[in-house]
Amino acid sequence: MHDPNPTPLLTVHTHNVGDAMVVTATGEIDLNSVPVLERALRDILIKDPETVVVVDLSTVSFLGSTGIAVLLTVAQSCRQPLRLVPSYPARRPLEVTGAAELFIMCDNLDTATEPVKNRASTIPEP
C-alpha cells in the first residue's frame, strides 16, 4: 500500500542564535535528501555571505558522501568558517574522509554559536 504522506528522510529548519544562522538537519542525508539541506544553506549565503553558519547535525542518523560534498562546497562559499555540530553517525564519515579538518567541529550548539573571540586582544604587548 502506498502512503500518500510519507515521512521525509530529512527535515531542515533555520533560525538565528545571536549573530549565527543555525541550520538544523534531522534524519538521513543522502543522495535523495541532500537537496533540502543544500537549498537551505545556499539561501542563507545568498542573503548574507558574511553570516556565521552553524549546521546542527546532532540529530542526523546518516551522512552519506553527497552530504559531505554539499558541506564542503558550501564551506568554500562561506566567508566565515562553517561550524558543524555532528552526531556520531555524522562525525564518523567526516573524520574517516578527513573532511572534519576543514570545518570547525563543535560538541554542542552552545559552543558552535559562541561569538568569535577577537584574537588580537589576547596577544601580549611587548
Automatic annotation (TrEMBL):
<dbReference type="Pfam" id="PF01740">
    <property type="entry name" value="STAS"/>
</dbReference>
<feature type="domain" description="STAS">
    <location>
        <begin position="10"/>
        <end position="85"/>
    </location>
</feature>
<protein>
    <submittedName>
        <fullName>Anti-sigma factor antagonist</fullName>
    </submittedName>
</protein>
<dbReference type="InterPro" id="IPR002645">
    <property type="entry name" value="STAS_dom"/>
</dbReference>
<dbReference type="GO" id="GO:0043856">
    <property type="term" value="F:anti-sigma factor antagonist activity"/>
</dbReference>
<dbReference type="InterPro" id="IPR036513">
    <property type="entry name" value="STAS_dom_sf"/>
</dbReference>
